[in-house]
Amino acid sequence: MTEVFGVPVAVILGQLMLGLVNGSFYAILSLGLAVIFGLMGIVNFAHGAFYALGAFAALLGLQWFGINYWAALLLAPLAIGVLGIVVERLFLRHLYKLDPLYGLLMTFGLALVIEGTLHQLFGASGHSYPVPAGLTGAFDLGFMILPIYRAWVIAVSVVVCFSTWFVIECTRLGATLRAATENAPLLQAFGVNVPLLVVATYGGGVALAALAGVLSAPVVLVGPLMGNSLVIVVFAVVVIGGMGSILGAIVSGLALGVVEGFTKVIYPEASNIVVFVIMALVLIARPAGLFGRE
User: Which domain range does residue 127 map to?
Assistant: First the structure.
């Protein structure tokens, strides 16, 4: 059997595929962060908490109201997105003219409140969410057995990420959103409701985090702290791609998931830090990130 670095190629290919699954979650989460930062200038530290809320919304919807996975894919992001709109109207809108540090501290405190509330209501132990009936089973790829659900996660991630990129970069709505970040007073003088754009942007970014939470529910245990460590990696992904860069968030998220998977095969001890090592190297060579503007 052909080997690379003393590891069978089949094992490497299998781990790369699993890394692509992780990269799919990174891409959706970092996309939401990039949208919020790029259009609002807020470092949303509550992103991991909204990710957990999306997973809990799917779980509780199934247990309490019988809402199946397919309905949860739509309803959970919508509900958490509305919650994000409420948060923006109550708290964040007062911070736009202040130093960005205030927004970071506010969202960090919000994350602690959400995680603490979930912990108090549902305990620290994880809860399992069943794989939907239509996505059970697996594909035989020759070098690995890939669960159908994980293939579904990759497909949904790619469609959602590049659809969002297309809307923001290639449509009139996206042009209006980008104009609001460049010169909001001028845009408002032309009759555009800039505050509505801002609140919709935050709600949309939060909804993307909740969607990632719903997608992850059948893969990982649903718990209050499920987004706690993940969000740190996602922040690194956003920095590598370029703060506020939509395409950078997508490409970096998918690519770094694959790199992380490859590292787990070649040198497992470094798999937890490889993303941060890459972030440090990118910041040294290009502080604005790979796709960011200087």
Answer: 3-285
Closest among 241, 254, 251 to 282, alpha carbons compared: 241
Q: What is the pLDDT of residues 97-121, one digit of tens each?
A: 788 888 889 999 999 999 999 999 9
SS3 letters across 196-264:
HHHHHHHHHHHHHHHHHHHHHCCCCCECCCCCCCHHHHHHHHHHHHCCCCHHHHHHHHHHHHHHHHHHH
140 in any annotated domain: yes
Task: Report the CATH number at residue 209.
Answer: 1.10.3470
- What is the rounded CA–CA span in Å between residue 3 and residue 9? 5
User: For residue 138, is it within any domain?
Assistant: yes
Instruction: Output the CA–CA distances (angstroms, integers) from residue 254 to 73, 183, 210, 238, 250, in the order listed.
Output: 21, 32, 18, 12, 6
Does residue 156 fall inside a structural domain?
yes
Packed helices 9-40 and 230-241: angle between N→C axes, nearest 10 degrees: 80
Domain-located, residue 39: yes
This prediction has a pTM of 0.92
Give the separation between CA 207 and CA 186, rounded to whole angstroms.
28
